[in-house]
């Protein structure tokens, strides 16, 4: 039976982790390689890096980080943030990323998804959808949630599936950072409408939230703070999910 | 010992390279190349593969003499070869991804889309799934039955002779996820991304 995945996400800025594991015994709390290794040794099913570097020059540092991490971590590595073109995707894959997550470019230029999934295979193309609830539906935002698009999240999800995305990383902007749980309705709506796996993101603050995310139809749950601040280890999270009859790899 | 990872523009092979480098000791020389002479003189070769069956076969054929060199290596010389993901699928006679495409024909069978029971199962089959070892393959030395491996694929290899199957995994049905036929080995899952247990499989292959 296919197991549900738990994916810790690390925010990386200028080659350093800015929101990461807050453990005292780390030699260097800002080293992405070291933190990714701790997570993969702890049973993370996949590691996600989100590059939040402000300028293009600083974005180059992510390549070095990915290269070093992929030599130490032997679980899938997904990298997102600032990915604009097929060439950017190619560079990240060559450095050792297994999947690339694309947000703004997927909205502005959806052909990037079609072209890259043909070229590199759907398995490595993740479309990141940042959605905000309005009255009845959800609208997608780009540029790290700063710019509204007027595009309906569900319609966009279906379009991205058609264009060749292998997975959808669905983040609720209303919930992100609140630690009050995923936007369950959003996860349900999208995962029941598409035929590709959905990763729930934004809002996980407790282990029960992870359970809810999976029960809403997500194939995987992404979380940052509950792991970073040492509230729970990946292993504790998995054991908890297993106790709630959710299939996980232990 | 020389182990060569065949670089034929089949997509991202950096993870395969990293994992083999991690496992290889001092006595093992890992090379990444499309040079036919270097492939011929290798002791073992690895055939990775990402993207579609069709695009991988086309990429193989784009390098003049590569298919013949691989045939000679695997069929005539019977030296060990490991195919990963689409690398395994290409062993088949025929594949049906995008369009009907002829495979290498090393292990008789076809590659067709996973029957997802009208959308009941999501595709691609992405994530960790347990393998059911049905035949003690040499690459499974020290690997426990029901170990978790990392998968990402929408197509499955259906061999004609079930005796070549060394493991299956359950996803809507029992999918063939590992084969062994004499010197030819293949895994549908990605040992290079399957943590320590996956590295053990790579180690087993290197130490054959």
Layout: helices, strands, pairs:
The complex is a heterodimer of chains A (250) and B (208).
Chain A lengths: L4 E9 L2 E4 L12 H10 L5 E5 L4 H15 L6 E4 L5 H10 L3 E4 L1 H5 L2 H10 L4 E9 L4 E5 L4 E6 H11 L3 E6 L11 H10 L4 E4 L5 H9 L4 E4 L1 H4 L5 H10 L7
Parallel strand pairs in A: 1-3, 1-11, 3-4, 4-5, 5-6, 6-9, 9-10, 10-11
Antiparallel strand pairs in A: 1-2, 6-7, 7-8
Helix pairs in contact in A: 1-2, 2-3
Chain B lengths: L1 E5 L7 H10 L5 E5 L2 H5 L3 E4 L5 H10 L3 H11 L4 E4 L1 H4 L4 E2 L5 E2 L6 E5 L11 E9 L14 E6 L1 E5 L5 E7 L1 E9 L2 E4 L7 H12 L2
Parallel strand pairs in B: 1-2, 1-3, 3-4, 4-13, 5-7
Antiparallel strand pairs in B: 5-6, 7-10, 8-9, 8-11, 11-12, 12-13
Helix pairs in contact in B: 1-6
Describe this structure in words.
- The complex is a heterodimer of chains A (250) and B (208).
- Chain A is of the alpha/beta class and 250 residues long.
- Chain A has an 8-stranded parallel β-barrel, surrounded by 8 helices.
- Helix content of chain A is 38%, strand content 24%.
- Chain A starts with a strand and ends in a 7-residue tail after the last helix.
- Chain A has 10 helices and 11 strands.
- Chain A is globular, with a radius of gyration of 17 Å.
- In chain A, 54% of the residues are buried.
- Chain B is α/β, with parallel strands linked by helices.
- Chain B has one domain: Class I glutamine amidotransferase (GATase) domain (Rossmann fold), CATH 3.40.50.880.
- A 9-stranded mixed beta sheet of chain B has the order 2-1-3-4-13-12-11-8-9. In chain B, strands 6-5-7-10 form a 4-stranded mixed beta sheet, with helices on one face.
- In chain B, strand 1, helix 1 and strand 2 form a beta-alpha-beta unit.
- Chain B starts with a strand and ends with a helix.
- The model of chain B has no long low-confidence stretch (mean pLDDT 96).
- Chains A and B meet through helix 3 and helix 5 of A and helix 1, strand 8, strand 9 and helix 6 of B.
